[in-house]
Amino acid sequence: MEQTFVMVKPDGVQRNVVGEIVSRFEKKGYTLAGAKLMTISNELAEKHYGEHKDKPFFGELVDFITSGPVFAMVWEGENVIASARQMMGATNPSDAAPGTIRGDFAVQVGMNIIHGSDSSESAEREIGLFFEKSELQSYTKTIGTWV
Ligand code: DAT
Ligand code: MG
């Protein structure tokens, strides 16, 4: 079953929307395979955001993502990678539609509350960066037949 990496960034933890975000994914019908509150090291931040290392905002991005605890998660379900991106909304919260997480909870692009993998390759890479295999659960929910 498809899996994606989703992370509530330090601004989302500080602003008390971890529960709300978990709730949206649960209510949608996805299954939580793993989750942890953690602080990202500089080394992990630079790996995770490696594709942006030449961008002018890279330094700020690394400083921000390491500035406080994040809530890292792996969510599982049909089409979850693309669907999580839709649930998050556009990168810049001012372009994110109301009803999306960024549209509802964020204002500026530098503090946009949530990360989600953008492809199956990114999902595999990011899950591997943040989680050990032993931290992920494989299980079925009896309600699954109704989702
Ligand atoms: P996304 O997080 O939607 O995948 P991205 O991969 O293009 O977006 O960028 C990663 C993060 O970098 C993004 O969530 C916020 C930050 N960022 C992107 N563009 C930015 C910009 N122009 N100025 C400041 N931060 C930016
Ligand atoms: Mg991205």
UniProtKB/TrEMBL annotation:
Residue positions, PTM Phosphothreonine: 91
GO molecular function ontology, one term from the record: nucleoside diphosphate kinase activity
Pfam families (UniProt xref): NDK (PF00334)
Annotated signal peptide: none
Ranges of residues in domain Nucleoside diphosphate kinase-like: 1-138
Co-factor requirement: Mg(2+)
Residues engaged in binding ATP: 9, 57, 85, 91, 102, 112
PROSITE patterns named in the record: NDPK_LIKE (PS51374)
Keywords: ATP-binding, Cytoplasm, Kinase, Magnesium, Metal-binding, Nucleotide metabolism, Nucleotide-binding, Phosphoprotein, Transferase
Residue positions, PTM Phosphoserine: 122
Active-site positions on this chain: 115 (pros-phosphohistidine intermediate)
Catalytic reactions of this protein: a 2'-deoxyribonucleoside 5'-diphosphate + ATP = a 2'-deoxyribonucleoside 5'-triphosphate + ADP; a ribonucleoside 5'-diphosphate + ATP = a ribonucleoside 5'-triphosphate + ADP
Location in or out of the cell: Cytoplasm
Entry's EC annotation: 2.7.4.6
Subunit structure: Homotetramer.
Family, as annotated: Belongs to the NDK family.
Function: Major role in the synthesis of nucleoside triphosphates other than ATP. The ATP gamma phosphate is transferred to the NDP beta phosphate via a ping-pong mechanism, using a phosphorylated active-site intermediate.
HAMAP family assigned to the protein according to its UniProt record, in alphabetical order: NDP_kinase
UniProt protein name: Nucleoside diphosphate kinase
